[in-house]
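Hey, resending since the last one bounced:
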Amino acid sequence: MLAVACALLLPANVTPALAQGTVSGGGCAVPGCTINDNTVNSADIQDGTITGADVATGTITSANIQDATITGADILNGTILGADIGTATITAANIANATITGANIATGTVTTGNILNGTILGADIATGTVTSANITDASITGADIATGTVTSANIQNGTIVAADIATGGVTSANILNGTIASVDIATGGVTSTNILDATITNADIANATITGAKIAAGTVTSGNILDATITNADIANATITGAKIAAGTVTSGNILDGTIASADIATGGVTSTNILDATITGADIANGAVTTANILDGTIASADLAAGAVGTANIANDAVTSAKILDGTVGSADLADGAVTSIKLAADSVDSSKIIDGTIVAADLADGAVT
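The C-alpha coordinates again:
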Protein backbone atom coordinates (compact mmCIF):
# COMPACT_ATOMS: atom_id res chain seq x y z
CA MET A 1 0.00 0.00 0.00
CA LEU A 2 1.24 3.49 -0.75
CA ALA A 3 2.00 5.84 2.08
CA VAL A 4 0.58 9.18 1.15
CA ALA A 5 1.42 12.43 2.86
CA CYS A 6 -1.49 14.89 2.95
CA ALA A 7 -1.24 18.53 3.81
CA LEU A 8 -3.98 18.26 6.50
CA LEU A 9 -3.87 19.47 10.10
CA LEU A 10 -3.81 16.04 11.72
CA PRO A 11 -1.99 14.84 14.77
CA ALA A 12 1.62 13.80 14.07
CA ASN A 13 0.92 10.19 14.94
CA VAL A 14 -2.04 9.87 12.58
CA THR A 15 -1.63 8.74 8.96
CA PRO A 16 -4.78 8.78 6.93
CA ALA A 17 -5.53 5.50 5.34
CA LEU A 18 -6.55 5.48 1.72
CA ALA A 19 -8.16 2.64 0.02
CA GLN A 20 -5.77 0.69 -2.19
CA GLY A 21 -5.87 1.93 -5.72
CA THR A 22 -7.04 5.43 -4.83
CA VAL A 23 -3.65 6.93 -5.98
CA SER A 24 -3.28 6.81 -9.70
CA GLY A 25 -0.33 7.48 -11.88
CA GLY A 26 -1.60 10.99 -12.31
CA GLY A 27 -0.98 11.90 -8.65
CA CYS A 28 -2.91 11.91 -5.40
CA ALA A 29 -6.66 11.90 -5.48
CA VAL A 30 -6.51 13.91 -2.31
CA PRO A 31 -5.51 17.52 -2.74
CA GLY A 32 -2.09 18.34 -1.22
CA CYS A 33 -0.99 14.67 -1.01
CA THR A 34 2.53 13.36 -2.05
CA ILE A 35 4.15 9.86 -2.16
CA ASN A 36 6.79 9.17 0.46
CA ASP A 37 10.33 8.20 -0.72
CA ASN A 38 11.12 4.48 -1.13
CA THR A 39 7.50 3.50 -0.76
CA VAL A 40 6.68 2.59 -4.40
CA ASN A 41 7.52 -1.04 -5.44
CA SER A 42 7.12 -3.02 -8.70
CA ALA A 43 3.64 -4.07 -7.75
CA ASP A 44 2.63 -0.38 -7.44
CA ILE A 45 3.81 0.40 -11.04
CA GLN A 46 1.60 -0.36 -14.00
CA ASP A 47 3.47 -2.66 -16.43
CA GLY A 48 5.02 -0.84 -19.40
CA THR A 49 4.48 2.65 -18.03
CA ILE A 50 8.08 3.58 -16.96
CA THR A 51 9.77 5.58 -19.78
CA GLY A 52 13.33 6.88 -20.12
CA ALA A 53 12.18 10.30 -18.95
CA ASP A 54 10.96 8.70 -15.66
CA VAL A 55 14.47 7.32 -14.87
CA ALA A 56 17.14 9.67 -13.46
CA THR A 57 20.56 9.62 -15.17
CA GLY A 58 22.87 6.90 -13.68
CA THR A 59 20.05 5.45 -11.60
CA ILE A 60 19.85 1.92 -13.16
CA THR A 61 22.72 -0.46 -12.24
CA SER A 62 23.46 -4.08 -13.21
CA ALA A 63 21.52 -5.19 -10.13
CA ASN A 64 18.38 -3.45 -11.48
CA ILE A 65 18.56 -5.35 -14.84
CA GLN A 66 17.23 -8.88 -15.15
CA ASP A 67 19.78 -11.31 -16.61
CA ALA A 68 19.50 -11.95 -20.37
CA THR A 69 16.92 -9.21 -20.85
CA ILE A 70 19.06 -6.51 -22.61
CA THR A 71 18.81 -6.67 -26.43
CA GLY A 72 20.48 -4.64 -29.12
CA ALA A 73 17.41 -2.40 -29.29
CA ASP A 74 17.92 -1.46 -25.59
CA ILE A 75 21.49 -0.16 -26.23
CA LEU A 76 22.18 3.25 -27.72
CA ASN A 77 24.40 2.85 -30.76
CA GLY A 78 28.08 3.56 -30.00
CA THR A 79 27.68 3.71 -26.22
CA ILE A 80 29.17 0.30 -25.16
CA LEU A 81 32.85 0.79 -24.13
CA GLY A 82 35.51 -1.78 -23.28
CA ALA A 83 35.15 -0.88 -19.62
CA ASP A 84 31.43 -1.81 -19.84
CA ILE A 85 32.25 -5.41 -20.82
CA GLY A 86 33.33 -8.00 -18.30
CA THR A 87 36.36 -10.20 -19.02
CA ALA A 88 35.42 -13.15 -21.27
CA THR A 89 31.71 -12.34 -21.01
CA ILE A 90 30.96 -11.94 -24.74
CA THR A 91 30.53 -15.19 -26.69
CA ALA A 92 29.80 -15.82 -30.34
CA ALA A 93 26.12 -16.24 -29.44
CA ASN A 94 26.02 -12.60 -28.16
CA ILE A 95 27.30 -11.14 -31.45
CA ALA A 96 25.09 -10.72 -34.50
CA ASN A 97 26.65 -12.12 -37.68
CA ALA A 98 28.79 -9.66 -39.65
CA THR A 99 28.36 -6.81 -37.14
CA ILE A 100 31.91 -6.41 -35.74
CA THR A 101 34.29 -4.27 -37.82
CA GLY A 102 37.99 -3.56 -37.38
CA ALA A 103 37.13 -0.21 -35.81
CA ASN A 104 35.30 -2.05 -32.98
CA ILE A 105 38.36 -4.08 -31.98
CA ALA A 106 41.22 -2.54 -29.98
CA THR A 107 44.68 -2.88 -31.54
CA GLY A 108 46.41 -6.10 -30.44
CA THR A 109 43.29 -7.42 -28.75
CA VAL A 110 42.50 -10.48 -30.91
CA THR A 111 44.71 -13.56 -30.31
CA THR A 112 44.66 -16.98 -31.93
CA GLY A 113 42.47 -18.21 -29.07
CA ASN A 114 39.74 -15.71 -30.09
CA ILE A 115 39.69 -16.89 -33.74
CA LEU A 116 37.72 -19.94 -34.86
CA ASN A 117 40.11 -22.32 -36.60
CA GLY A 118 39.94 -22.19 -40.39
CA THR A 119 37.82 -19.03 -40.54
CA ILE A 120 40.43 -16.39 -41.53
CA LEU A 121 40.21 -15.71 -45.29
CA GLY A 122 42.58 -13.83 -47.58
CA ALA A 123 40.08 -10.95 -47.69
CA ASP A 124 40.40 -10.64 -43.87
CA ILE A 125 44.15 -9.93 -44.03
CA ALA A 126 45.53 -6.52 -45.03
CA THR A 127 48.10 -6.46 -47.87
CA GLY A 128 51.63 -6.98 -46.54
CA THR A 129 50.45 -7.82 -43.04
CA VAL A 130 51.61 -11.46 -42.79
CA THR A 131 55.38 -11.88 -42.25
CA SER A 132 57.59 -14.95 -41.82
CA ALA A 133 57.19 -14.63 -38.04
CA ASN A 134 53.40 -15.09 -38.42
CA ILE A 135 53.75 -18.35 -40.40
CA THR A 136 54.41 -21.71 -38.74
CA ASP A 137 57.59 -23.29 -40.14
CA ALA A 138 56.97 -25.84 -42.91
CA SER A 139 53.22 -25.10 -42.96
CA ILE A 140 53.01 -23.36 -46.39
CA THR A 141 51.94 -25.80 -49.13
CA GLY A 142 51.72 -25.36 -52.88
CA ALA A 143 47.97 -24.88 -52.57
CA ASP A 144 48.61 -21.78 -50.40
CA ILE A 145 50.69 -20.06 -53.09
CA ALA A 146 49.06 -18.33 -56.06
CA THR A 147 50.29 -19.36 -59.52
CA GLY A 148 53.25 -17.27 -60.63
CA THR A 149 53.69 -15.66 -57.21
CA VAL A 150 57.08 -17.10 -56.17
CA THR A 151 60.13 -15.41 -57.76
CA SER A 152 63.86 -16.07 -57.45
CA ALA A 153 64.03 -13.42 -54.69
CA ASN A 154 61.59 -15.51 -52.57
CA ILE A 155 63.74 -18.66 -52.80
CA GLN A 156 66.78 -19.17 -50.58
CA ASN A 157 69.87 -19.88 -52.68
CA GLY A 158 70.77 -23.54 -52.89
CA THR A 159 67.51 -24.84 -51.41
CA ILE A 160 65.76 -26.14 -54.54
CA VAL A 161 66.27 -29.91 -54.86
CA ALA A 162 65.25 -32.29 -57.64
CA ALA A 163 62.12 -33.32 -55.72
CA ASP A 164 60.90 -29.69 -55.84
CA ILE A 165 60.93 -29.62 -59.66
CA ALA A 166 58.10 -31.15 -61.69
CA THR A 167 59.07 -33.63 -64.39
CA GLY A 168 59.89 -31.65 -67.51
CA GLY A 169 59.53 -28.41 -65.57
CA VAL A 170 62.98 -27.03 -66.39
CA THR A 171 63.50 -25.75 -69.93
CA SER A 172 66.50 -24.18 -71.63
CA ALA A 173 65.10 -20.71 -70.81
CA ASN A 174 65.27 -21.56 -67.06
CA ILE A 175 68.97 -22.47 -67.18
CA LEU A 176 71.72 -19.83 -67.13
CA ASN A 177 74.01 -20.36 -70.10
CA GLY A 178 77.20 -22.21 -69.24
CA THR A 179 76.15 -23.19 -65.70
CA ILE A 180 75.31 -26.90 -66.11
CA ALA A 181 78.31 -28.98 -64.97
CA SER A 182 78.70 -32.75 -65.19
CA VAL A 183 78.03 -33.06 -61.44
CA ASP A 184 74.57 -31.50 -62.02
CA ILE A 185 73.54 -34.37 -64.32
CA ALA A 186 72.62 -37.81 -63.02
CA THR A 187 74.51 -40.73 -64.51
CA GLY A 188 72.68 -41.64 -67.71
CA GLY A 189 70.35 -38.67 -67.22
CA VAL A 190 70.94 -37.08 -70.61
CA THR A 191 69.49 -38.81 -73.67
CA SER A 192 69.54 -37.88 -77.33
CA THR A 193 66.13 -36.18 -77.00
CA ASN A 194 67.54 -33.81 -74.33
CA ILE A 195 70.31 -32.57 -76.65
CA LEU A 196 69.68 -30.02 -79.40
CA ASP A 197 70.76 -31.53 -82.70
CA ALA A 198 74.25 -30.55 -83.87
CA THR A 199 75.09 -28.63 -80.66
CA ILE A 200 77.64 -31.02 -79.07
CA THR A 201 81.19 -29.77 -79.71
CA ASN A 202 84.55 -31.36 -78.95
CA ALA A 203 84.90 -29.08 -75.90
CA ASP A 204 81.71 -30.61 -74.41
CA ILE A 205 83.12 -34.13 -74.41
CA ALA A 206 85.59 -35.39 -71.78
CA ASN A 207 88.68 -37.09 -73.15
CA ALA A 208 88.31 -40.81 -73.83
CA THR A 209 84.58 -40.67 -72.98
CA ILE A 210 82.99 -41.79 -76.27
CA THR A 211 83.23 -45.45 -77.13
CA GLY A 212 82.27 -47.22 -80.32
CA ALA A 213 79.02 -48.33 -78.70
CA LYS A 214 77.93 -44.68 -78.36
CA ILE A 215 78.35 -43.92 -82.07
CA ALA A 216 75.63 -44.87 -84.57
CA ALA A 217 76.78 -46.97 -87.51
CA GLY A 218 77.88 -44.83 -90.44
CA THR A 219 77.79 -41.61 -88.37
CA VAL A 220 81.47 -40.65 -88.32
CA THR A 221 82.74 -38.90 -91.46
CA SER A 222 86.13 -37.48 -92.33
CA GLY A 223 84.96 -34.09 -91.07
CA ASN A 224 84.39 -35.55 -87.56
CA ILE A 225 87.93 -36.95 -87.32
CA LEU A 226 90.88 -34.74 -86.31
CA ASP A 227 93.52 -34.92 -89.01
CA ALA A 228 96.40 -37.32 -88.34
CA THR A 229 94.75 -38.83 -85.22
CA ILE A 230 93.71 -42.25 -86.59
CA THR A 231 96.19 -44.88 -85.43
CA ASN A 232 96.60 -48.52 -86.42
CA ALA A 233 94.84 -49.56 -83.20
CA ASP A 234 91.72 -47.64 -84.28
CA ILE A 235 91.31 -49.65 -87.50
CA ALA A 236 89.85 -53.15 -87.57
CA ASN A 237 91.87 -55.76 -89.42
CA ALA A 238 91.25 -55.95 -93.18
CA THR A 239 89.00 -52.86 -93.05
CA ILE A 240 90.84 -50.49 -95.39
CA THR A 241 90.54 -51.21 -99.10
CA GLY A 242 92.29 -49.56 -102.00
CA ALA A 243 89.23 -47.39 -102.62
CA LYS A 244 89.71 -45.81 -99.16
CA ILE A 245 93.31 -44.76 -99.86
CA ALA A 246 94.01 -41.56 -101.80
CA ALA A 247 96.33 -41.89 -104.80
CA GLY A 248 99.96 -41.39 -103.84
CA THR A 249 99.17 -41.45 -100.11
CA VAL A 250 100.95 -44.67 -99.06
CA THR A 251 104.69 -44.34 -98.53
CA SER A 252 107.34 -46.85 -97.52
CA GLY A 253 106.86 -45.74 -93.90
CA ASN A 254 103.19 -46.82 -94.03
CA ILE A 255 104.03 -50.35 -95.25
CA LEU A 256 105.15 -53.08 -92.84
CA ASP A 257 108.53 -54.37 -93.98
CA GLY A 258 108.34 -57.61 -95.94
CA THR A 259 104.53 -57.52 -96.39
CA ILE A 260 104.24 -56.48 -100.07
CA ALA A 261 103.43 -59.65 -102.07
CA SER A 262 103.40 -60.02 -105.84
CA ALA A 263 99.59 -60.06 -105.74
CA ASP A 264 99.73 -56.50 -104.28
CA ILE A 265 101.65 -55.20 -107.32
CA ALA A 266 99.84 -54.41 -110.56
CA THR A 267 101.26 -55.92 -113.74
CA GLY A 268 104.00 -53.57 -114.89
CA GLY A 269 103.58 -51.57 -111.71
CA VAL A 270 107.22 -51.79 -110.64
CA THR A 271 109.73 -49.85 -112.72
CA SER A 272 113.47 -49.40 -112.39
CA THR A 273 112.90 -46.20 -110.37
CA ASN A 274 110.85 -48.20 -107.82
CA ILE A 275 113.69 -50.68 -107.20
CA LEU A 276 116.60 -49.76 -104.93
CA ASP A 277 119.84 -50.15 -106.78
CA ALA A 278 121.62 -53.47 -106.24
CA THR A 279 118.71 -54.95 -104.24
CA ILE A 280 117.32 -57.45 -106.82
CA THR A 281 118.71 -60.92 -106.14
CA GLY A 282 118.37 -64.11 -108.10
CA ALA A 283 115.74 -65.28 -105.70
CA ASP A 284 113.59 -62.28 -106.70
CA ILE A 285 113.61 -63.27 -110.39
CA ALA A 286 111.37 -66.03 -111.67
CA ASN A 287 113.01 -68.71 -113.82
CA GLY A 288 113.12 -67.57 -117.43
CA ALA A 289 111.83 -64.14 -116.51
CA VAL A 290 114.92 -62.19 -117.68
CA THR A 291 115.22 -61.75 -121.44
CA THR A 292 117.81 -59.90 -123.53
CA ALA A 293 115.44 -56.90 -123.52
CA ASN A 294 115.76 -56.78 -119.72
CA ILE A 295 119.59 -56.74 -119.82
CA LEU A 296 121.42 -53.52 -120.50
CA ASP A 297 123.73 -54.04 -123.45
CA GLY A 298 127.34 -54.68 -122.44
CA THR A 299 126.54 -55.22 -118.74
CA ILE A 300 126.86 -59.05 -118.48
CA ALA A 301 130.29 -59.77 -116.97
CA SER A 302 131.99 -63.15 -116.64
CA ALA A 303 131.18 -63.09 -112.94
CA ASP A 304 127.48 -62.98 -113.92
CA LEU A 305 127.79 -66.26 -115.85
CA ALA A 306 127.74 -69.61 -114.17
CA ALA A 307 130.52 -72.01 -115.11
CA GLY A 308 129.64 -73.63 -118.45
CA ALA A 309 126.55 -71.40 -118.74
CA VAL A 310 127.56 -69.99 -122.16
CA GLY A 311 127.29 -72.56 -124.96
CA THR A 312 128.05 -72.33 -128.69
CA ALA A 313 124.42 -71.49 -129.34
CA ASN A 314 124.74 -68.49 -127.00
CA ILE A 315 127.74 -67.05 -128.88
CA ALA A 316 127.16 -65.09 -132.05
CA ASN A 317 129.25 -65.96 -135.06
CA ASP A 318 132.70 -64.30 -134.98
CA ALA A 319 131.92 -62.96 -131.50
CA VAL A 320 134.92 -64.69 -129.86
CA THR A 321 138.22 -62.94 -130.51
CA SER A 322 141.70 -63.64 -129.20
CA ALA A 323 141.11 -61.01 -126.52
CA LYS A 324 138.10 -62.99 -125.28
CA ILE A 325 140.14 -66.23 -124.97
CA LEU A 326 142.23 -66.75 -121.86
CA ASP A 327 145.77 -67.44 -122.84
CA GLY A 328 146.68 -71.11 -122.89
CA THR A 329 143.08 -72.27 -122.52
CA VAL A 330 142.33 -73.35 -126.15
CA GLY A 331 142.85 -77.09 -126.35
CA SER A 332 142.86 -79.43 -129.34
CA ALA A 333 139.32 -80.38 -128.57
CA ASP A 334 138.34 -76.72 -128.96
CA LEU A 335 139.67 -76.67 -132.55
CA ALA A 336 137.81 -78.14 -135.47
CA ASP A 337 139.83 -80.40 -137.67
CA GLY A 338 141.83 -78.34 -140.15
CA ALA A 339 140.81 -75.19 -138.41
CA VAL A 340 144.40 -74.06 -137.73
CA THR A 341 146.16 -72.96 -140.91
CA SER A 342 149.62 -71.57 -141.38
CA ILE A 343 148.30 -68.06 -141.39
CA LYS A 344 146.75 -68.66 -137.95
CA LEU A 345 150.14 -69.57 -136.44
CA ALA A 346 152.38 -66.87 -135.22
CA ALA A 347 156.03 -67.00 -136.30
CA ASP A 348 158.00 -69.45 -134.20
CA SER A 349 154.84 -70.43 -132.26
CA VAL A 350 155.13 -74.17 -133.12
CA ASP A 351 157.91 -76.05 -131.38
CA SER A 352 158.59 -79.74 -130.94
CA SER A 353 156.32 -79.90 -127.90
CA LYS A 354 153.39 -78.80 -130.02
CA ILE A 355 153.92 -81.57 -132.64
CA ILE A 356 152.68 -85.11 -132.11
CA ASP A 357 155.55 -87.46 -132.43
CA GLY A 358 155.82 -89.15 -135.84
CA THR A 359 153.41 -86.89 -137.53
CA ILE A 360 155.85 -84.75 -139.59
CA VAL A 361 156.03 -86.06 -143.16
CA ALA A 362 158.14 -84.89 -146.10
CA ALA A 363 155.41 -82.73 -147.39
CA ASP A 364 155.49 -80.77 -144.12
CA LEU A 365 159.18 -79.92 -144.66
CA ALA A 366 160.28 -77.04 -146.81
CA ASP A 367 163.08 -77.67 -149.29
CA GLY A 368 166.39 -77.44 -147.52
CA ALA A 369 164.61 -77.24 -144.14
CA VAL A 370 166.43 -80.21 -142.73
CA THR A 371 170.11 -79.64 -142.30
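The chain has a mean pLDDT of 81.

Sorry for the duplicate.
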